[in-house]
Amino acid sequence: MKSPTVVLCLVVALCLLPASGLSQNQTNPGFEKLKTLVGDWEGKNADGKPVRVTYRIVSSGTAVLETLDPEGEMEMVTVYTQDLDQVAVTHYCAANNQPRMRTKANPPDPTELDFQFTGATNLKTPGEGHMHRLVLVLESNDSFTQKWTFREQGKPDAVEIFHFTRKK
Q: pTM (2 decimals)?
């Protein structure tokens, strides 16, 4: 009696293995589009100040690492990862907190990724100043725009826009 039960359990386990492998290997159009940013970029903010950004694929292709260096400000790091059918981001901010944001499931247009706040580490209160939204508009292989929204209780949202071109 135990033998058929063991065989049945093995058959079920073997059937589940390929299914779980497929879900891990599914591509995410938004995350794949982010990978095309690998390299060095130059840009300007709304005041015309230079901003540099670099993208690298890290962790066996499971993350995209962004290093943002606005002139006269602290360098910041942002890590983008695939999260099933969404793209998640953790931003290591000069404001000394780490907001987490994510896109909606299967963004309809992977050339515009809209990341919305989901939480943060090192944030004492929800009203403390933090990056609350990031919109990436991937215009071409050689240009894109970042729109960062900073939120702090009692103040209007501050939006910082950077326009970048690929460094030749």
A: 0.82
